[in-house]
Amino acid sequence: MGVEIKIEHLTKSFGKSLIWKDVSLTVPAGEICVMLGPSGTGKSVLLKTIIGLLKPDEGKVIIEGVDIASCPEKELYEIRKLFGVLFQDGAMFGSMNLYDNVAFPLREHTKKSESEIRNIVMEKMDLVGLLGAEDKLPGEISGGMRKRAGLARALVLDPEIVLFDEPDSGLDPVRTSFLNQLIIDLNAQIDATFLIVTHDINTARTVPDNIGLLYHKHLAMFGPREMLLSSEEPVVRQFLNAQRVGPIGMSEEKDADELEAEKDQELPPLPPIPLQQEPSSGIPRKSQRPPGQWCAENGVTPPPGSFAPNMSMAPGA
């Protein structure tokens, strides 16, 4: 079972440049969460702070009762063993074949025998659909295969938290769809806590249990998928429905003149909330909520056509 990530009043700057301020949220144990935001809003910085690669200026990141923002290096080293990370480009060692790339964390951090390592590596490569490709070099395979190899390596230490830094980056829509299904299936099998940074709106609308949105140096909203997909909050509505009308512009924020010109424009209706993607087995994940449950519990009427099977996303213009 995954573990909870509790973030309290987190602030991070680089020199005089404020990245985000007073960010607080709880990533529930065993659930899939997506973090969105316009480019440059510090999504990847947040992942690096969560794993302790960057220190925040203020605030806490509490995992298993330990604040990794202030704990001793030795304790941080032990906490990091709970993590697996899929980097944007897979971060493969170009001179090693896929087998040795996946085996690397086991050889570095455990005292397992080579026969034990082989069993684990082959199991994880089978899990991501790469059996038979273990002798290939990273330069000999497609970007999608490198992502899956990176995911196999992230899983070899049986992590309780898996961080995904833009897993869809550089992938076409078909391979992104396959990767999304793999993420769903893995969560169903290992019950780890997943946190995904992405720009892909279809992924955000169909994959996670919870969604967060970073905007203008703060966390605009974080909560259950249905809460954000039915939200009338301008920045959340605009981003999650890929609309032009709203506070986000080409350079992140629109100026006062642009917003004034838009104020009388009629917003397109919210698109229907799609069904959440299910595991290939058809058996719901432990953290998966019945369609419409959050809306019903909170007295929210979802957009017409929500939770219909086989629907595709059709965001407003």
Can you walk me through this structure?
Residues 255-317 are annotated as: Disordered. Pfam families: ABC_tran. GO terms for molecular function: ATP binding; ATP hydrolysis activity. This protein has 317 residues and is α/β, with parallel strands linked by helices. The protein has a domain at 5-82 and 159-262: P-loop containing nucleotide triphosphate hydrolases (Rossmann fold), CATH 3.40.50. Helices cover 32% and strands 21% of the residues. The protein contains eleven helices and twelve strands. The chain has helices at residues 43-50, 73-80, 98-109, 114-127, 143-155, 173-190, 201-206, 225-229, 234-240, 256-262, 293-297; strands at 5-14, 17-27, 32-36, 58-63, 66-67, 83-86, 161-165, 193-197, 210-215, 218-224, 248-249, 252-253. The strands form three sheets. The protein has a six-stranded mixed β-sheet with strand order 6-7-8-3-9-10. Strand 1 and strand 2 form a beta hairpin. The chain is globular and about 65 Å long.
The helix/strand series, from N terminus to C terminus, equals EEEHEEHEHHHEHEHEEHHEEHH
The CATH topology of the domain at 5-82 and 159-262 is given as Rossmann fold
The biggest sheet, with number of strands, parallel, antiparallel or mixed sense and barrel status, is: 6 strands, mixed
Mean pLDDT level: 89
Helix count equals 11
Secondary structure category? alpha/beta
What is the class of the domain at 5-82 and 159-262 in the CATH system? Alpha Beta
Q: Oligomeric status of the shown chains?
A: single chain
Contiguous uncertain segments of 5+ residues: 312-317
Number of strands: 12
Strand content: 15-25%
Assign a percent range to the helix content.
Answer: 25-40%
Which term fits the overall shape? globular
List the strand order in the largest sheet: 6-7-8-3-9-10
CATH architecture of the domain at 5-82 and 159-262: 3-Layer(aba) Sandwich
Q: End-to-end span in angstroms?
A: 41 Å
